[in-house]
Amino acid sequence: MKKICILSLDGGGIRGIISCIVLKYIEEQLQKQEGAEARLGDYFDMVAGSSTGGLITAIILCPGENSKAKHSIKRGLELYSEKGEDIFQVSFWQKLINPFGLFSEKISQEALEKNLTVFFGNIELRELIKPCLITSYDIENRRAKLFNSVEASRQSTDNFLVKDICRATSAAPTYFAPARIQSMYGQYFSLIDGGMFANNPALCAYAEARKMPFAELFKNHQKPNYPSVNDMMMVSIGTGTESKSYSFQKLNKAGKLGWISPVIDILMSANAETVDYQLDQMFQTLGARNQKNYFRINPSLRKASPEMDNASEKNIEELIQAGLSYIDENKEQLNQIVQKLTKNEI
User: Fold this and answer.
1) Could you tell me which residues are beta bridge partners of residue 138?
2) d(C-alpha 72, C-alpha 62), whole Å
3) Catalytic residue among 45, 164, 193, 309
4) Which CATH superfamily is domain 4-340 in?
5) Which residues form the active site (predicted)?
6) What is the pLDDT of residues 292-319, one digit of tens each?
7) Does residue 242 have a pLDDT over 80?
8) Which among 50, 51, 170, 183 is annotated as catalytic?
């Protein structure tokens, strides 16, 4: 039996460039071994993403010819580096009437929606080439809304346009307005960023994978149905760690306004760290060989800004350099991932 290979991608706004850089190295190594047409989407059995990670998930699972992945991860990197400043730009007038996003969302969603429409067109969730899980949160019904391509293929109530899903999963409070989207069945949902509860969606991915009949989905019994942790290989990629601390003096009696930015930052980073701890403990219960099938990749931001919307040319270059530095220092680990992906391909 072959392992179920799962890729999980954290949220983090423009910092998703770091994830793209790491994935680009993995894809290039696959191409050296398997040929120039190798794509990440063809080697992972399931991909999960929150916020910017949800957008990358949709990019690498876009359908091409013969149910193969259409895009190289380079296409995703181009989208961030070429369109990032357009998406995250805030005009002088907006800064003047809405300083620091105090009175309404910091960034207009128009550029984001325009670029999502151009990139994804009318592709539906059910058309993505592999099982996927993209997170968001339903603010009206107060519950998680998980977009699952397998469920979407079974019934129209769970099927949506991919561009709408990407808009929903990236609707970070204080940055973008909530998304109001409609399923293919006609039901409306009011959604915000999935990173609010699962900025690291790896544990959500594990839970979803446990109930999936992969052998039946792929029509290949080399893959197990309803896999346990022993049947999985998981690669979880973050959007950069930072060492920013908050002093007692700064936050003592800070009030609601003073806590807005720290709370969002702490919630997202603490969530990611907790999920990493839980999954690491789960894999540590396995035998010596299978313990090594969990990889958590989260490069240091180094000189890059921790802000999710800093899409300046200088910061984009710093994010790229942060990803490249991680690759330079961790090639052995990344090459192990490549070997495991080729071994478990069907």
Assistant:
1) 143, 191
2) 10
3) 193
4) Cytosolic phospholipase A2 catalytic domain (3.40.1090.10)
5) 51 (nucleophile), 193 (proton acceptor)
6) 999 999 999 999 988 887 888 899 899 9
7) no
8) 51
Greatest distance between any 2 Cα atoms in the chain: 61
As a whole number of angstroms, the distance between CA 344 and CA 312 comes to 40
Residue 319 CA to residue 296 CA, distance in Å, equals 18
Domain boundaries, the chain: 4-340
Q: What is the pLDDT of residue 243?
A: 67
**Contact predicate 152/158, CB 8 Å:** yes
Instruction: Please state, in angstroms and rounded to a whole number, the distance separating the CA atoms of residues 102 and 204.
Output: 32
Q: Give the C-alpha separation, 87 to 104, whole Å.
A: 17
pLDDT tens digit string along 62-117?
999 888 999 999 988 887 766 555 554 433 333 333 333 433 344 456 777 888 89
67 is catalytic: no
Q: Count other C-beta atoms under 10 Å from residue 30's C-beta.
A: 20
Given a contact cutoff of 8 angstroms between Cβ atoms, the answer to whether 323 and 23 are in contact is no
Phi, psi angle pair for 345, to nearest 5°: -70, 145
Is residue 86 part of the annotated active site? The answer reads: no
| Total length of the chain | 346
Alpha carbon of 154 to those of 148, 149, 280: distances in Å?
Answer: 10, 9, 33
The mean pLDDT value for 47-70 works out to 93
